[in-house]
């Protein structure tokens, strides 16, 4: 017997979870459980502008955007349980929650997982060497600087060449720490032009492309790193007192896994259909748990999009369906993984995917049973380090009765 | 003041000795070079409570490991040190290893351990279905268990302190002056005088031994690198999977950890630098290659942490415990990784030697009860799961470290304990905070803030 019964339980009060709560609250009892002291998610820690364009149609700072998402959910009538953590499943659509107010079980007619993603820390990246102070992820850096108003070191090496890597550079600069090198495995030419310009001119960050940090040195505090060129094997020592490992995202999929949900091997998040239904009946997933990581506004629009399928489940008991999509290299993953031809389109009529190498003028093909059933030529490149978006119209001619569909770059 | 006994080194062995001696009428100082107890070799071992089945029969080590297994098992039950009775299986991957198994069973018998059982390959796979292909057979050792080495060290040192021992961290012994009645230890924290000195200095025991004019052994730091895998890998490894030692050397083990993770390692590399606890590219490659054949499925999981520990290997095949009554000096050397298990038995043995040397080490009647240690093991009930405890104190319902589910109440308790942490690593060893898969992505800043609120203003930031 659960301590509390709700219509919709949303696990995670970041942009995706809060947007879903806003969209669902009008039609029933919605509870959002957020483990941080205040809902809002990762944008709460990112005190720079660039948030809210696609969902709120204005540009805001991260904290302002996070607060707007939180207020919208409350105004819509959702209940927020903050500083509370869902720790385990105790049954089908039933979970255990730890909060200062007590330990309780919550049972819901529909559960939405919106647990987001995290950066792989140094250990998961398997960077050897000493273990001194001064090695951080972007998340920890932003937390220290923005929420706790702390200083970091004086000179930093940033590991990674993703969008978030530049966010780390900005935060370091704000904290009075100069980025002396950005080390990325991607060849120099493959970084996007806008960021190359930003890096070299605006932020004056030397980019060491096609390279890896292969060792961290320092007894108590970082003293230097060793950077190795992937092509020549040449090594150089870069002196610094701070190392920020950025990007290399992995979804926070613990509940998805312990709940026995079918996971996608590429995203490592739950495999979902266009309505964002997972393999478990009545369990949905939204946001960067599904596509690590896209921008906050895209995550939030997932939350809005999922509302239709959640209502459908509550009304009719509809479960995950569609033809299976698989990504072919250099695409690492495509999301959603199931699409129903003629059925509901995915969020924003886009498939989201991730490429491991740069293709400047990509032609995306959808192939079913050895036949190319759709082609898409975006005007944007497929570039590593950020989500590559594909029009879902590419799937219009997919045969609902046919085999799985491969999404590839021609 | 002049102490009756100064024990140098607050690792497991030194703490156990100080605890035992502090239970008598003697005054005891536990002298530690580092800023915290258990911050040397004791903090980074494979954390296995050994039956002693594979020790060399007839050695002091064999006897003390077997005795220590029971002593620590009982002490753990009394204090709440986390222990999981998982059992172990040695797995043979080639004919040489398979042929060695009956001899190992006999060795166990010779060591007084009679529970070992030879098993066929299909039984090995029934025990550990995720094992890679090619296992030919195995030897079950049901008594091998996993234990929390950090809590063990803390419990022993806390108990020593409550029994009256003075714990002097940050006192690195530089030189020694021997006097007629007492010995003076010149330390980085000032001079300490004691009638008797016990050298339990681990990696530094041979250097310290030379201060009494001895040249009887050399400690070689043997580096062992380890990978700790994500908790989601834990179901793959229900028990300790041990390699079969052969002429071609020791392999690596795969073991569940007491914190609910999986450990792969260690490497074994003899070094000269006694502070070289860094990890290496070669070590990582070696472990990944071993892991690939042992349990390929494991490598699909995330690595939560990698670390390197130094074992105090010495140039002789047994523990070196020797009393020198004329100098009122006792050496406890060469206590290798088995010291976690044997520590309390070593202490018992040391007390026996000191008694023979004329000291009155009889226990006082009014000893305080053993300390109740917070449970940081995954198997027991942790505060975040304990409804009654949260109702009584909401701080146990406030999860600060999400990955390891460490609550504000536990962090507060650690900071207010008899032996509070000196730094972030000390807090990690007491609570598990920041030891999880995100390594501080979410909680790092909050945990640092908790630590700093409890201390004098200082600098610090996250540790990766």
Structure write-up:
The complex is a heterodimer of chains A (410) and B (464). Chain A has 3 domains: 1-118 and 248-321, FAD/NAD(P)-binding domain (3-Layer(bba) Sandwich); 121-247, FAD/NAD(P)-binding domain (3-Layer(bba) Sandwich), CATH 3.50.50.60; 322-410, no CATH class. In chain A, 21% of the residues lie in helices and 32% in strands. Chain A has 8 helices and 27 strands. Chain A has helices at 15-24, 53-56, 62-76, 138-147, 163-174, 193-202, 254-258, 296-316; strands at residues 4-11, 30-34, 49-51, 60-61, 79-82, 85-91, 94-99, 102-113, 117-119, 135-137, 155-159, 178-183, 207-208, 211-217, 224-229, 235-239, 242-245, 249-251, 283-285, 323-327, 331-335, 338-339, 350-355, 364-368, 371-376, 388-391, 405-409. In chain A, strands 1, 2, 5, 6, 7, 8 and 19 form a 7-stranded mixed β-sheet that branches. In chain A, strands 10-17-11-12-13 form a 5-stranded parallel β-sheet. In chain A, strand 11, helix 5 and strand 12 form a beta-alpha-beta unit. In chain A, helix 1 packs parallel to helix 3 (62-76), helix 1 (15-24) runs parallel beside helix 8 and helix 4 packs parallel to helix 5. Chain A is globular, with a radius of gyration of 22 Å. Chain B has 3 domains: 1-83 and 145-218 and 315-378, FAD/NAD(P)-binding domain (3-Layer(bba) Sandwich), CATH 3.50.50; 88-142 and 220-312, D-Amino Acid Oxidase, subunit A, domain 2 (D-Amino Acid Oxidase, Chain A, domain 2, 2-Layer Sandwich), CATH 3.30.9.10; 383-453, no CATH class. Chain B contains 12 helices and 22 strands. Chain B has helices at residues 12-22, 60-79, 95-110, 121-127, 149-162, 205-209, 281-294, 339-356, 387-392, 408-415, 424-431, 444-453; strands at 2-8, 28-31, 48-49, 83-84, 88-92, 117-120, 137-141, 145-147, 166-168, 173-178, 183-187, 190-199, 219-229, 240-243, 253-256, 262-265, 269-270, 303-314, 320-324, 329-333, 399-401, 406-407. In chain B, the strands form 5 sheets. In chain B, strands 1, 2, 9, 10, 11, 12, 19 and 20 form an 8-stranded mixed β-sheet that branches. In chain B, strands 13, 15, 16, 17 and 18 form a 5-stranded antiparallel β-sheet that branches. Chain B starts with a strand and ends in an 11-residue tail after the last helix. Mean pLDDT of chain B is 93; it is low at 457-464. Chains A and B meet through strand 7, strand 10, helix 4, strand 14 and helix 7 of A and helix 7, strand 18, helix 9 and helix 12 of B.
């Amino acid at each position: 017997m659960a301590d509390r019964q709700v219509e919709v339980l949303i696990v995670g009060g970041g942009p995706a979870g809060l947007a879903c709560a806003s969209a669902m609250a009008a039609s029933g009892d919605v509870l959002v459980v957020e483990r941080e002291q205040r809902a809002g998610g990762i944008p709460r820690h990112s005190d720079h502008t660039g948030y809210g364009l696609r969902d709120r149609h204005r540009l805001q700072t991260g904290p302002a955007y996070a607060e707007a998402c939180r207020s919208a959910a409350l105004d819509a009538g959702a209940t927020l349980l903050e500083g509370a953590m869902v720790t385990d499943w105790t049954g089908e659509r039933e979970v255990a929650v730890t909060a200062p107010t007590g330990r309780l079980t919550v049972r819901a007619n529909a559960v939405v997982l919106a647990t987001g993603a995290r950066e792989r820390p140094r250990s998961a990246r398997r960077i050897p060497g000493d273990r001194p102070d001064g090695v951080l992820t972007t998340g920890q850096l932003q937390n220290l600087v923005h929420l706790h108003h702390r200083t970091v070191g004086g000179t930093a090496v940033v590991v990674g060449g993703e969008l978030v890597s530049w966010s780390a550079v900005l935060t370091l600069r704000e904290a009075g720490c100069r980025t002396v090198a950005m080390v990325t495995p991607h060849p120099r030419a493959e970084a996007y032009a806008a960021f190359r310009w930003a890096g070299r001119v605006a932020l004056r960050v030397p980019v060491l492309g096609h390279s890896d940090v292969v060792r961290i040195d320092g007894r108590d505090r970082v003293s230097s790193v060793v950077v190795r060129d992937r092509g020549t094997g040449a090594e150089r020592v870069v002196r610094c007192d701070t190392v920020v490992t950025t990007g290399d995202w992995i979804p926070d999929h613990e509940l998805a896994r312990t709940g026995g949900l079918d996971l996608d091997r590429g995203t490592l998040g739950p495999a979902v259909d266009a309505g964002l239904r997972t393999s478990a009946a009545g369990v949905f997933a939204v946001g960067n748990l599904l596509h690590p990581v896209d921008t906050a506004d895209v995550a939030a629009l997932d939350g809005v999009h999922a509302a239709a399928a959640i209502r459908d489940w509550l009304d009719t008991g509809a479960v995950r369906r569609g033809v299976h999509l698989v990504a072919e290299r250099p695409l690492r993953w495509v999301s959603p993984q199931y699409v129903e031809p003629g059925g509901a389109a995915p969020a924003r009529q886009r498939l989201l995917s991730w490429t491991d190498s740069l293709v400047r003028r990509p032609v995306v093909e959808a192939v079913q049973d050895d036949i190319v059933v759709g082609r898409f030529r975006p005007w944007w490149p497929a570039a590593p380090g950020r989500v590559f978006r594909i029009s879902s119209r590419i799937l219009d001619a997919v045969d609902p009765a046919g085999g799985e569909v491969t999404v590839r770059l021609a | 003041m002049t102490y009756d006994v100064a024990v140098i080194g607050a690792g497991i062995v030194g703490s156990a000795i100080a605890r035992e001696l502090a239970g008598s009428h003697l005054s005891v100082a536990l002298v530690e070079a580092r800023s915290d107890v258990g911050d040397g070799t004791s903090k980074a071992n494979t954390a296995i409570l050994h039956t002693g089945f594979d020790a060399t029969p007839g050695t002091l080590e064999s006897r003390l490991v077997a005795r220590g297994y029971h002593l620590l098992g009982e002490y753990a039950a009394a204090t709440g040190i986390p222990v999981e009775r998982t059992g172990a299986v040695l797995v043979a991957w080639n004919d040489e290893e398979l042929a060695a198994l009956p001899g190992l069973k006999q060795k166990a018998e010779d060591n007084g351990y009679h529970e070992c059982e030879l098993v066929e390959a299909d039984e090995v796979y029934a025990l550990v279905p995720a094992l890679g292909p090619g296992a030919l057979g195995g030897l079950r050792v049901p008594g091998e268990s996993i234990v929390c080495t950090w809590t063990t060290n803390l419990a022993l040192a806390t108990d020593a302190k409550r029994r009256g021992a003075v714990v002097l961290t940050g006192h690195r012994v530089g030189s020694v002056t021997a006097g007629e009645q007492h010995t003076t230890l010149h330390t980085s924290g000032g001079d300490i005088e004691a009638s008797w000195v016990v050298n339990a200095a681990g990696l530094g025991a041979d250097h310290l031994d030379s201060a009494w004019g001895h040249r009887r052994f050399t400690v070689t730091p043997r580096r062992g690198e380890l990978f700790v895998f994500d908790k989601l890998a834990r179901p793959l490894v229900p028990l300790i999977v041990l390699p079969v030692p052969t002429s071609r050397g020791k392999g690596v083990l795969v073991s569940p950890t007491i914190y609910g993770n999986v450990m792969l390692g260690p490497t074994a590399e003899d070094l000269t630098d006694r502070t070289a606890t860094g990890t290496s590219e070669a070590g990582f490659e070696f472990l990944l290659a071993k892991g690939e054949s042992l349990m390929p499925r494991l490598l699909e999981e995330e690595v939560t942490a990698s670390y390197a520990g130094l074992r105090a290997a010495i140039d002789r095949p047994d523990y070196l415990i020797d009393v020198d009554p004329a100098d009122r000096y006792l050496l406890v050397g060469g206590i290798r990784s088995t010291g976690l298990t044997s520590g309390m038995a070593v202490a018992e043995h040391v007390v026996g030697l000191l008694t023979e040397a004329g000291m009155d080490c009889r226990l006082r009647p009014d000893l305080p009860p053993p300390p109740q240690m917070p449970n940081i093991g995954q198997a027991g009930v942790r505060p975040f799961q304990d409804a009654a405890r949260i109702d009584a104190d909401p701080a146990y319902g406030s999860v600060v470290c999400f990955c390891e589910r460490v609550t504000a109440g536990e962090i507060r308790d650690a900071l207010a304990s008899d032996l509070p942490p000196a730094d972030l690593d000390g807090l990690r060893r007491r609570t598990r905070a920041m030891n999880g898969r995100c390594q501080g992505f979410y909680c790092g800043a909050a945990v640092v803030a908790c630590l700093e609120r409890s201390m004098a203003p200082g600098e610090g930031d996250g540790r990766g």
